[in-house]
Amino acid sequence: MRLSRQLRPVFATLLIFLFLLACSRAEFVYERADWFGARWAANYLDLDRQQRRQIRDELATYREFHREVRVPQIQALLESAISDLESGHHERETIAGHLATTETLLGDMTRDLLPLVSDVLADLDRGQQAQLEQRFEKRRKESREELARRAHDDWEEQRRERFLERAESLLGSLTAGQKARITRCADAMPDTAAAQLEWEIDRQNRLLAMIADGYSADRIHDYLEGWWLHYRDQPEPLSQARQERQQVTLACLADLLPTLNQGQRDKLAERLTGYARNLEQLRNN
Length: 285
What we know:
It is globular, with a radius of gyration of 20 Å. It has 12 helices and no strands. The two termini are about 15 Å apart. By secondary structure, it is mostly helical.
């Protein structure tokens, strides 16, 4: 689906900041983004011909807006990150600014498409509602199985290895000191997967009830915006962990980025430049 490819540069930008890959906020937004196109419709809903046509038409309109408005914003973020990388500007305030801009862009693109998502959900018939509930349950089962696998003694070590692999894919070979920094950051990230899953289940059940009770698209829109963007009714431990995760991410980046050698900087800058080039091609298509 083209829309998914259009959204990926923003998430790729998040990947550039390394530790956001392990941040549940990044994972949370990425999962929400999967709702914004044909893949979401195919995975969660059995739509009739008219509903599929509505989605295609709305997404075609959004692609033009995305190309003219959102793509230049993403390009500006990438160009700023490249400039700071090449000039060695790794001050805490600079990094915080990039992360805040990325978060804002993700939120803006979510808001762009919430009306379409809400309209489709409000229009589901009883059979489609039942299918949506079944597919939610399938995802819950998969998540619970993943949580069960975490009980193994080597899960923490696997988590550290994933952090290191992600960093090496962006930077190339790491020094022993860099590996130690990344490992400390992995260990410092709070793990709230079980609590997050329970909150997600509660939010999904509320959404299913609203659809079944015939709530309007506007009310579903408000509910999704509160859930996905404002963490409305999020339990306090999850809220605290989210803030802690943001602080750890910022501190770890401020600690790691100044240690990059020229080869690592070049590799990262090349990746960012490739994203920017792909975006320019998208704008011109």
